Amino acid sequence: MEEAKLIIDGKEWIFPVIEGSEGEKAIDIRTLRQQTGYITFDPGFGSTGSCRSAITYMDGEKGILRYRGIPIEQLAEKSTFVETAFLLITGELPTRDELTRTSVHLNDFSLLHENMKAFYQNYPSKAHPMGILSAMVNAMRSFYPELIDLEEEMNKTYLRLISKIRTMAAMAYRISLGERVVYPKPGLCYCSNFLNMMFDSIVVPYQIDPDLVKALNVFWILHADHEQNCSTTAVRVVGSGKVNIYATLSAGISALWGPLHGGANQAVVKMLQRIHKDGMTIDDCIKRAKDKDDDFRLMGFGHRVYKTYDPRARIMKKMADIVLSKIQKDDPLLDIARKLEEVALKDPYFVEKNLYPNVDFYSGIVLRAMGIPTNMFTVMFAIGRLPGWIAQWKEDVSDPEMKISRPRQIYTGYQVRDYVPMSERRQG
Ligand code: CMC
């Protein structure tokens, strides 16, 4: 077995090396502090493996993403979001019967408790839907049981969450507009049902377009999991304290909200709108993005893991073309995005730092074309990521190796000093 040798002040320690199924290697330093008194220092966890996981494989150098071994390109082309969710959570693609049962449960669980509906009325109209969604998912614990010891019940809990998050998101949107709530329709598939709840009206009934349904399936498949990213780590860390699944997922939603993570899709569209409105040139944007004294970043560019083109961005870019041609609309923001990408990919700063478009660079354009409002973009990401969070939480709580998350730190504050009474403190 391969081992790693650590030498500090001439003293040697040996640590085992563990290897993943795709050849990834890690030095197992679980006993490091106990043996040596030292800890590791890795802010942002760029060199830290926090768990063993059999869910998602990424190779950031080669631009590979697979769920349970299946390439993302095949899932985007051939699967549906519901089937992919089943794959992530259970580890296998469903049989026909399993898929039918899943769809029946998703339909059965799609309504929201009327008392939960009342929560929406008290939010200010400008409340961000991500804040509402995170609070609503947390509130579900008070309305629905979580019977962690019964597998059958937990499987229902996962489906209840996947079904209701879609209803809650659409409802938040309708109520924010002051419009009547559209209830889920039994018989419509997951994506059609969501679009119908968002856009149906008494005056003009919503026409379900199979191309838009396909685009939404692809959008949610691409977002369904991404191994140990910020929000998934939040889910695993919060879940490690053995809090209930609703509170755990609510933490994931909050973590996703940030503009460096899931909030980037909203930030990209805001950036493109600003460039369009202010008439900024592409060269100006690139110059500003490179200037360390300017807080302007090229949103939708760069990734902690991908050091090449994000495979999801490639699929999303194609989707943007398909959806825009379908609705027969040109979007000036798509032209700006294409030009920005072209110039950035040739610019030495972006080339040297391996900064390529990530999934969020084109996803906002796809969502806009579907009629989804900008402040709902990150909610759309959250709906897609839910099966991944559930799969990761499930893996975590059933892993005998896992412990409560509790990193250490390098303390840099004062050394011990005495309490100073108020009368002796500096004035001011
Ligand atoms: N524009 C300009 N410079 C950038 C960008 C960017 N978008 N991204 C990274 N850099 C520079 C950064 O300034 C740094 O330069 P230096 O080495 O000279 O200090 C270098 O590239 C490395 O960046 P970093 O911030 O240290 O890298 P990270 O791995 O900590 O951050 C990131 C990754 C995604 C947060 C970052 O690239 C970023 O802020 N991108 C824009 C936001 C974005 O698109 N986020 C969505 C990520 S994909 C969706 C998801 O899965 O969450």
Number of strands: 6
CATH architecture assignment of the largest domain: Orthogonal Bundle
- CATH third-level topology of the largest domain: Citrate Synthase, domain 1
CATH class of the largest domain: Mainly Alpha
| Alpha plus pi helix count | 18
- Overall 3D shape: globular
> What structural category do the secondary elements indicate?
mainly alpha
**Strand order of the biggest β-sheet:** 1-2-3
CATH homologous superfamily title of the largest domain: Citrate Synthase, domain 1
**Bound small-molecule species:** carboxymethyl coenzyme *A
Tally the structural domains: 3
What is the secondary structure topology, with strand pairs?
Blueprint: E1 3-8, E2 11-19, E3 25-27, H1 32-36, E4 56-59, E5 64-67, E6 70-71, H2 72-78, H3 81-90, H4 96-108, H5 114-121, H6 129-143, H7 151-176, H8 190-199, H9 210-223, H10 230-239, H11 245-256, H12 264-278, H13 282-290, H14 311-326, H15 332-346, H16 348-352, H17 360-370, H18 377-397
Antiparallel strand pairs: 1-2, 2-3, 4-5, 5-6
Helix pairs in contact: 2-9, 3-9, 3-18, 4-7, 6-7, 6-11, 7-8, 7-18, 9-14, 9-17, 9-18, 10-11, 10-18, 11-18, 12-15, 12-17, 13-15, 14-17
Bound molecules: carboxymethyl coenzyme *A.
